[in-house]
């Protein structure tokens, strides 16, 4: 937001100065239009300016027809709003509602529909929104450092969660606050938001590796939450729980690795084979515990499969990020 404020201030000053230099009437309006046109990212800025300029042209046309047909009465402005606002919203020009109203009110204040009045409004639009576009396309903040920090927080959080799950499997009486889950979830969502901004700042649309990475982590986080539900049903220590705890021990390090080697998945396959060879549960309590552990292994496989599938779809440059 800080950088956007700087861009807005610079675009406003430049637009007003340009309007004064060209001798345009009401030069402050050019500054107002520049404020409305500046946005956080390049593509969002281009979409905003397009919507505002298109809505303003349509507003000038509609208002001119109303003023010529009915006259410059105050209630005609309300009629314009009743017609224009739903129409623009329907055609995806909601961002241009305010800009369109500004130029219409200017025409109403002049009390005439003429080439001079319409030309002045078009000139103000070109200057204000033009400079907004220029500053939208200029240098934008670099997000790599923040995204790298959020990746570290996410992977550290995953590691801590796996460690706590292993502890609970070995000692069902252990108590855990779960704060790592909230912290990691917040980091993932922030990463998705910032990576989307990074994508919108590219002049040539393309996949954003960081966005793919955090989307993958969001899916894995959903899987982890289901694992936590299964672990919560383990009320006593059993040999099978210790075997799964070993997998979580490995995951505490694997999640921070730069490469997906598949060793944990191979270990899980061996574990599932050994489960099938074990005697059937003798008591209801043991049955419920084994069922929870079976569901846990299925969710663990889904977690591992997410990274495996996503990596196969990424380019070499993306694989350096998504592990």
UniProtKB/TrEMBL annotation:
Q: Where are the transmembrane segments?
A: 50-67, 74-93, 113-139
Membrane-protein topology:
Multi-pass membrane protein
State what protein this is by name: Aromatic acid exporter family protein
Q: List the residue ranges forming a coiled coil, or say none.
A: none
Cellular location(s): Cell membrane
Sorted alphabetically, the keyword list is:
Cell membrane, Membrane, Transmembrane, Transmembrane helix
Q: Name one Pfam family in it.
A: ArAE_1_C
Q: Putative aromatic acid exporter C-terminal domain: from which residue to which, for each copy?
A: 146-306
A GO cellular-component term linked to this record: plasma membrane
Q: InterPro entries under this entry? A: ArAE_1, ArAE_1_C, ArAE_1_C_sf, UPF0421
